[in-house]
């Protein structure tokens, strides 16, 4: 499995003319997976050799602005560059609880309509992931009948046996999220390649006795 990582931004708090806020892209088999999307990420993408249209999955580590303020703008730019296609697979977005509400409100208030589908899969944090005074329970967001719930997606809970969240399982790999301790609930992401059985030449073994 061929993997290539491109750092689009490694700065914190805010972007600078020479250093973008947090964002990196993992490229595999023609797809691009974006991890974090700080302000200015789409500009950094334009400066890189990557094609933003190849982004199929987005992973947000936590809801501090320098890690996700660039997401609504990036989605809108991708929409402007695309054609309506009802058969197109949705862009999967993974992140902490509250991300769906943020995206829906941002797109709704700016009168932005995406020409491609997105699904937002929210990770439900545990209360021990950050200082007690910093923990905010976003589970009731947009539950009022007068408000739509925004884009579809799953609500993911911690698997206590694995101590992780199962996000993606494909033929070749598994992607999980695990809890990190920070000032707000945060997550790390791990890609694990599945074992690949070797090829055994039985006739060659027989020939060699």
UniProtKB/TrEMBL annotation:
Pfam name, any one: Anti-Pycsar_Apyc1
Any Gene Ontology CC annotation: nucleus
Keyword Transmembrane helix: no
Hydrolase recorded as keyword: yes
Keywords: Endonuclease, Hydrolase, Metal-binding, Nuclease, tRNA processing, Zinc
InterPro entries from the UniProt entry: RibonucZ/Hydroxyglut_hydro, RNase_Z/BN
CDD domains per UniProt: RNaseZ_ZiPD-like_MBL-fold
GO MF term set: 3'-tRNA processing endoribonuclease activity; metal ion binding
Cofactor(s) needed for function: Zn(2+)
PANTHER family for this protein: ZINC PHOSPHODIESTERASE ELAC PROTEIN 1
Quaternary data: Homodimer.
Entry protein name: RNZ1 protein
Underlying gene: Elac1
């Amino acid at each position: 499995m061929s993997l290539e990582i491109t750092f689009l931004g490694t700065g914190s708090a805010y972007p600078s003319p020479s250093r973008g806020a947090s964002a990196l892209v993992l490229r595999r088999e023609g797809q691009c997976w974006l991890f974090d999307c700080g302000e200015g990420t789409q500009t950094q993408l334009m400066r890189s050799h990557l094609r933003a249209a190849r982004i199929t999955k987005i992973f947000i580590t936590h809801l501090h602005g320098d890690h996700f303020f660039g997401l609504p703008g990036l989605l809108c730019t991708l929409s402007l560059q695309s054609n309506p296609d009802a058969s197109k697979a949705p862009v999967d977005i993974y992140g902490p609880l509250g991300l769906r509400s943020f995206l829906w409100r941002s797109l709704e208030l700016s009168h932005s309509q995406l020409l491609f589908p997105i699904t937002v899969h929210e990770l439900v944090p545990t209360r021990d992931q950050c200082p007690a005074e910093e923990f905010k329970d976003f589970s009731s967001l947009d539950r009022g009948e007068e408000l739509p719930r925004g884009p579809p997606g799953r609500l993911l809970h911690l698997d206590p046996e694995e101590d992780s969240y199962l996000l993606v399982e494909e033929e070749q790999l598994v992607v999980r999220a695990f809890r990190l301790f920070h000032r707000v609930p945060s997550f790390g992401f791990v890609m694990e390649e599945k074992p690949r059985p070797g090829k055994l030449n039985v006739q060659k073994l027989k020939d060699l006795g």
